[in-house]
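Entry 14. Ran structure prediction on the chain below.
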Amino acid sequence: MSETSAGDVAAATAAAATAGWRRAGLAGAAIGVVAAGAAAGVAVERLTVGRGMRKRARLALDAAGPYGALRGLPGRAVADDGTELYYEVEEVEADGAAGGREGRATAGSGPRRRRLFGHKAPTPVTVVFSHGYCLGQDSWHFQRAALRGLVRTVHWDQRSHGRSGRGRAQAEGVPIGIDQLGRDLKTVIDAAAPDGPLVLVGHSMGGMTIMALADRYPELIRDRVAAVAFVGTSSGKLGEVNFGLPVAGVNAVRRVLPGVLKALGSQAELVERGRRATADLFAGLIKRYSFGSRDVDPAVARFAERLIESTPIDVVAEFYPAFTEHDKSGALPAFREIPVLILAGDKDLVTPSSHSEAIADELPDAELVIVPDAGHLVMLEHPETVTDRLADLLVRIGAVPA
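Output, structure tokens:
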């Protein structure tokens, strides 16, 4: 086993951006760390299995893994800048079976309400899931599977991610900001759940999106939101995160990363080829920054890898600066009057558990859960724990039966 020092990786990444892209492969792998929500420069375990065998193993896992295969009623909403946002709805049928399978209809007309004795029943609770940076709605696979048929859910892809359209404003040179994501979430809610109580669930960037929603639309939180779950997220000060690196290493990364990202984003096709060519290193980086335990199911690890590697490098570069500017601590009081779950992995190197504790300090009545031996993608690494805590929250507000 050998390790690559933080300084070496940072230096190699900077060289890739300035030396005619001769080292584009390593640069692409380094940006894979950013795609995992981290920064360049990590300790990587050297893999000893042959490259051909690893490639065959990936193909086998891709063919056999059921993760990310759940689909609901598709719908599309148009953001304020014209970006098309894709979402899916899982309905609850009268007999309790999960409704909303793809191909039955197009979502967008809001929740259906059954008639009882000539009157409409109350609009059901809708749980809206918002995913994190460089992921997609399928990152909630386990929670989606567990809640099917029990409660109405909406899963959506943030702009430039998954099946949603490329950000129109960003394509025209407007920087992305967390505030825009909050407005996007409002657009999806208006289309997929225009009335009735809401439960908002957000992981990482998705949690920040919920905070931005509250900052812009506090009346929506007050009038319609019955509960909130923040998973592995932060209300600010992400610029101080060291990603598990020594001080010298993280300082070096911070100096070169903005310029490297800008340069790599302008050479997207070349860097994508480099990222594919260094798939082994990329997989090691993802595992390092996504999970906290050593015995992660290989199929789950490969699923996470597929989610992250599907995000184009220019989108990775485009979104990254928004996180250092993110500060929504002032929006947290909007959640003080409702049940809140705050959950994080104790080995999260991307949004450390101390950031969840800081949110809990602002929301003293919230339930704070720090999951042992868990990293940033805690909902994939320890799905039972996350699903159980989320189910308890839904039971508490009467959204699902005990």
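Confidence is low (pLDDT under 50) at residues 1-49, 100-119. Will compare against last week's run tomorrow.
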